[in-house]
Amino acid sequence: MDLLSVNGTGLSLDKLRDTLIRLEDTIIFGLIERAQFAWNPRIYEKGSFNFVDGFNGSFFEYFLHEVEAVHARVRRYQSPDEYPFTTPLPQPILPALDYPPTLHANDVNINPKLLNAYLEHIVPTLCTHADDQNYGSSATRDIECLQALSRRIHYGKFIAEAKFVADPEGYTKLIRANDRAAIERLLTAPEVEARLLRRLRRKALIYGQDITEDGTVVCSTGETATHGAGRPGKINLDLVVELYEKYVIPLTKEVEVEYLMQRLDSQQ
Predict the structure, then answer these.
(1) 17, 78, 129, 207: which sits with the fewest CB atoms below 10 Å from its CB?
(2) What are the tens digits of pLDDT across the range 26-85?
(3) What is the DSSP letter of 218?
(4) Does 1 fall in a domain?
(5) Contact (CB, 8 A) for 174 and 182
(6) Which residues are within 8 A (CB) of 130 and not within 5 positions of it... i.e. 6 or more apart?
(7) Residue 94: which domain range?
(8) Is residue 35 part of a domain?
(9) How many domains does the chain have?
(10) Are residues 60 and 139 in contact, defined by beta-carbon separation less than 8 angstroms?
(11) CB 257, CB 106: distance < 8 Å
(12) Can you point out the beta strands (E) in the chain?
């Protein structure tokens, strides 16, 4: 929440976009870290591990809940830009912080859809189809990726709030008409999305390369090339762009629309 900026008229859309751009780096590096391990499908299969406490889910489900329980105790999910994937979670051991009243009351949480997309499509595409037994490392990287993706997607609420404040009459009319399609069209800026995808491809190219001390780039083949040439060896560029095109952007829009559909409830 420290990256959010609030002024007298509401959220700063420019600063929110700066935050989203920084989150791109976190997501890309997270994917690169996960890609160094195999898919390891066993960790996602229920019943593949025996747990002493009788838990009957998958290793990944167990690990995810345990990590979120620790984070909940230090009030991670008290922040309005953080959303858990699991329940129930313990209460924080730290006193609550006084966050500014930025968002209106809502119950929008898109994490179930994100989790399904990540496990069913993203990881199998990102990783080699093998089992290298790095189960803990794989699950740790999965959770880091999911947390960053969730935060990025749910930032859509702040974007939607900022856009609503900029045009309350236009959005209110569409909300009362229950016209989700029109709301999405009003929210969408195709030129911004196009710049985003170009930026992502460039970042993935740069971050996915190994650069030697003399400035040469090690390609995926192990050969070297001048900086900027060759293919990155750590991550597939198309995968990063596809991740945003197929999942991040559509899920963010869904968050934005559903938040706005609840936006007037707290005013009535």
Answers:
(1) 129
(2) 999 999 999 999 999 999 999 999 887 878 899 999 999 999 999 999 999 999 999 999
(3) E
(4) no
(5) yes
(6) 38, 39, 40
(7) 13-221+231-262
(8) yes
(9) 1
(10) yes
(11) no
(12) 6-7, 10-11, 210-211, 217-218, 224-225
- 6 falls within a domain: no
Q: String of b and e for 108-118 (b: at least 16 CB within 10 Å)?
A: bebbeebbebb
- In the chain, the percentage of residues whose pLDDT exceeds 90 is 76
Q: Tell me if the bond preceding 124 is cis, omega within 30° of 0.
A: no
pLDDT in tens, 234-262: 888 999 999 999 999 999 999 999 999 99
CATH of the domain at 256: 1.10.590.10
Task: For residue 217, give the H/E element and its range.
Answer: strand 217-218
Q: In this structure, is residue 7 part of a structural domain?
A: no
What are the pLDDT digits (tens) for 153-168? Answer: 999 999 999 999 999 9
Task: Report the candidate in 41, 44, 42 with the shortest Cα–Cα distance to residue 62.
Answer: 44
